[in-house]
């Protein structure tokens, strides 16, 4: 995408959530919807990855962004994909989808709860034993947001910094932040050894990281994502001679989950 030539739009044209609450008086943003890479340079069917090219992805349960990332790497010709989520059955079903797209891709899966160190150690060992290298690690898992109902019955995030249960706060931290930290630590040596590849780590953060209100997510979710942004900076700075580490926010992506509120007028 040529950003110089991208269609810039005025914030005043955006839906109220973005215009009034998130961006404030920021002047311009890029085009509202980059919803699909179809047909463009970033369309995975138009990307030809070198061989070998091995990707490990956390949080590839049966739905969500992690699954799409895996299928996109399959389309782009990755030679190896290691899937993982807490449910082995989910990971297996995604593995079948990957195989259907790219039969020559070696796809493996491992049940891994990133908040459990022994699971993360097993994931890293599986990657080394099965593929002997790692080119890209994607840390995608998250503790799902919990929504309550407001007085009109509309779904809302827990509103106040003191409204969340201690248990929820610790879970968000263990899954989002600490799970990613732990997986980075265990996968880093293999990435460092894969010198003829991109040696890249990608953390799924969120726009909500920069937002001190709970309109988009609970305080614990938002703060765990803020910490992930800084974690990416630390890893990138410390290992920059060989490894790239970035945190990205994916925008607002509709996932296949009826419990997550979605308003097409807002997003
Ligand atoms: N969707 C959006 O609009 C949006 C916006 C901003 C940021 N993001 C970020 O993008 C990423 C993907 O979001 P999504 O919307 O696709 O979420 P999602 O559908 O809830 O997917 C999260 C995945 O994480 C897995 N998971 C949950 N806890 C885990 C744990 N302890 N260990 C390992 N895996 C675990 C789940 O699978 P199992 O249950 O099988 O383990 C699930 O597949 C997240 O990091 C999210 O914060 C999403």
What does this structure look like?
- This is NAD(P)-binding protein.
- Belongs to the short-chain dehydrogenases/reductases (SDR) family.
- The chain is of the alpha/beta class and 267 residues long.
- The chain has helices at 16-22, 65-75, 88-101, 117-131, 166-193, 219-238; strands at residues 8-10, 28-30, 54-58, 80-85, 106-111, 136-139, 148-149, 155-156, 200-204, 244-248.
- NADP nicotinamide-adenine-dinucleotide phosphate binds at residues 58-59, 61, 63-66, 85-87, 90, 112-115, 140-144, 175, 179, 204, 206, 249-250, 252-253, 255.
Describe the structure in brief:
With 267 residues, the protein is of the alpha/beta class. It has helices at 16-22, 65-75, 88-101, 117-131, 166-193, 219-238; strands at residues 8-10, 28-30, 54-58, 80-85, 106-111, 136-139, 148-149, 155-156, 200-204, 244-248. Strands 5-4-3-6-9-10 form a six-stranded parallel sheet, with helices on both faces. Strands 1-2 form a two-stranded antiparallel ribbon. The protein has a two-stranded antiparallel sheet with strand order 7-8.
């Amino acid at each position: 995408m040529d950003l110089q030539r991208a269609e810039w739009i005025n914030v005043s044209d955006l839906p109220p959530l973005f215009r009034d609450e998130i961006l404030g008086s920021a002047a311009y943003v890029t085009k509202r919807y980059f919803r699909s890479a179809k047909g463009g340079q970033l369309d995975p069917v138009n990307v030809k990855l070198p061989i070998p090219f091995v990707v490990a992805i956390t949080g590839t349960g049966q739905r969500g962004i992690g699954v799409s990332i895996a299928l996109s790497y399959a389309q782009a010709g990755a030679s190896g994909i290691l899937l993982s989520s807490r449910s082995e059955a989910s990971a297996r079903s995604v593995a079948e989808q990957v195989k259907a797209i790219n039969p020559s891709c070696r796809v493996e899966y491992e049940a891994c709860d990133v908040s459990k160190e022994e699971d993360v150690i097993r994931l890293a060992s599986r990657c080394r034993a099965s593929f002997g290298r790692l080119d890209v690690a994607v840390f995608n898992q998250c503790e799902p947001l919990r929504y309550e109902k407001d007085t009109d019955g509309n779904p809302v995030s827990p509103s106040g910094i003191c409204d969340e249960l201690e248990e929820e706060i610790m879970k968000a931290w263990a899954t989002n932040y600490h799970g990613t930290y732990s997986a980075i630590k265990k996968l880093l040596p293999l990435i460092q050894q894969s010198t003829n590849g991109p040696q890249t780590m990608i953390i799924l953060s969120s726009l909500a990281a920069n937002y001190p209100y709970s309109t988009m997510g609970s305080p614990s979710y938002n703060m765990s994502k803020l910490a992930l942004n800084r974690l990416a900076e630390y890893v990138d700075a410390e290992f920059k001679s060989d490894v790239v580490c970035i945190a990205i926010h994916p925008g607002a992506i509709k996932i296949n989950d009826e419990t997550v509120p979605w308003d097409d007028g807002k997003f």
